[in-house]
Structures are given as structure tokens and as C-alpha cells.
Amino acid sequence: MSEQKPQEEQQASQPGAESAAEDPRPEPRPETAGQEAGAAPGEPPAEPRAEPPVEPSAESPAEQEKDRIAELEAEATELKDQLLRALAEAENVRRRAQRDRADAQKYAAAPMLRDLLAVADNLTRAIQSVPQGEPVEDERFKTLLAGIELTERELASVFQRHNVVKLEPLGEKMDPHRHEAMFEVPDPSTPNGTIVQVVEPGYMLHDRLIRPARVGVAKGGPAQAAPADESAEAAGPEEPAQGGRVDTSA
Fold first, then answer.
1. Is 146 inside any structural domain?
2. d(Cα 56, Cα 43) in Å, to the nearest integer?
3. Following DSSP, what letter does each residue of 83-144 receive, concatenated?
4. Separation of alpha carbons 136 and 124, rounded Å
5. What is the pTM assigned to this prediction?
6. Is 45:34 a contact under the CB 8 Å cutoff?
7. Is 174:195 a contact under the CB 8 Å cutoff?
8. 194 assigned to some structural domain
9. How far apart (Å, rounded) are the C-alpha atoms in residues 173 and 216?
10. What is the CATH number of the domain that holds 204?
11. Residues 163-191 pLDDT 10s
12. Which domain holds residue 137?
């Protein structure tokens, strides 16, 4: 009895061992695989999804490389076409700017020359107002007239240096691009449409018309004969002679 008592006291000094021996609760069971995956309790575990099998490529590596090369070549062709179009557009812009700059320099004096035409007309009228062939006795008048003629010649020289051409189409055929018909003169002896009087001369700067010539045109005469090249075009090609051979090699 004396030996059992110390053992009981020793067991009483270890409360953890006594509680572990007396605790009748069962140990917790580990969770199932379905509950770990998020399945509700009581439901069967979800089966894992079967991924679709990866189908092997129908094209071989050589064919894939060939398709890639064709794709790159098509892309390179498109980029080359865009580059050529851009270069052509830039060249057109450059040429247009160059042409506009050349025209601006070529016709820069047109407004000033157009204003000087009235001065030239007044000088010509002043000279034409003096009767031709009559002697001038007044020395001062002769000096004045000589000065006006000298001024007109100097102005004509200035026009010539700046490529201004004077149009005096007396006896020429009426050209609506260069002449302006002011009136018609009945004249049966003169071909119809012929300029018989120049009221005001015209002027051109290089190949550009500054002012058309104002003229009087004959009316009622015979029709003017067309130039040889125009009549040949109107007649058409000549027909081969009968029995001749036609060259069809062309």
C-alpha cells in the first residue's frame, strides 16, 4: 500500500496525462480530396477535368518556314510599293514647287508691265496725232516731238529686254486667244475674219498674254483658206490606187 500511494501522487502531479487519458472525444478525421477542392460537404468529390488532346500540326517545319517566307515577301512588296508611292509624291511636290518658283520669277514683272502699257499707248497716240508728211516749222514743237519719239523707243527697248512682245496683227486671221474683236468692217474683197484695223496693240510676256489686241475684223468676204496641214487632216488618209498593194506590216 505504501508503494501504490506515491505512484498515485505522481500521477496526480501530471494533469495533462490524466486529462488525455480521461478525454473520450474522437480525434478529427482528415478532410477528403473533394472538400479540399471546395466541394460542399456530403457531395461526391468532383472529378478532374480532362484537357483536350493537343493535335499535332499538319504542316511540317519546312512548310511552315515556306509560308512564313511568303508572308514576309508579301509584306516587303507592300512596303516597297508604299515607299515608291511616297517617293513619287515627294518628287511631284518638288517639281511643282520648282515650276511655281520659276513661274513666279518669270512673270514677276507682269503687274508692273501691265500698268506701263497705258504709258506706251499714250506716247503712240501723241506721235500719231502729228500729221505725217507735213513740215514742222516750230523748233520747240520739233524738239518736243523728237523727245516723245525717243521716249517711246526707249520704252520699247525696255519691253524687249524683259521679253515683252508687242502684237500688231494687221492683216492676220482673227485669233480669239490673242485678239479681241471690237467691231466688224463690211469688206467683200477681204477674206472673212481678217483683221483690217488695230485699235490697240496687244502685249505678251514670254508665252503669257498680258493684254489682247483690240481689232476690227472684216465681214462679208470669201472664207479664208485653211492651212495645208489642217486641210490634209480634214481630208483623211489617201486611198491607195486601184490595183495597188497596201502595206499591212505595221
1. yes
2. 38
3. HHHHHHHHHHHHHHHHHHHHHHHHTTTHHHHHHHHHHHHHHHHHHHTSPTT-----HHHHHH
4. 18
5. 0.55
6. yes
7. yes
8. yes
9. 11
10. 2.30.22.10
11. 999 999 999 999 999 999 999 999 888 89
12. 110-224
Residue 153 pairs with which residues in a beta bridge? none
Q: How many domains does the chain have?
A: 1
Per-residue model confidence as pLDDT tens digits over 55-83: 555 668 888 888 889 999 999 999 999 99
**How big is the CA angle at 229 (ends 240 and 164), to the nearest 5 degrees?**
165
| Residues 6 or more apart whose Cβ sits within 8 Å of residue 44 | 34
Burial of 212 (0-12, 13-18, 19+ CB in 10 A): buried
Average pLDDT rounded to a whole number, residues 84-110 = 92
Set of cell numbers at residue 228: 495645208
Residue written as cell 511655281? 100
Q: Do the Cβ atoms of 45 and 32 come closer than 8 Å? A: yes
Instruction: Judge contact between 193 and 171, C-beta under 8 A.
Output: no
What angle separates helix 139-161 from helix 110-128, to the nearest 10 degrees?
150
- 74 located within any domain: no
Domain membership flag for residue 121:
yes
CA-CA-CA-CA torsion for 197, 198, 199, 202, nearest 10 degrees? 160
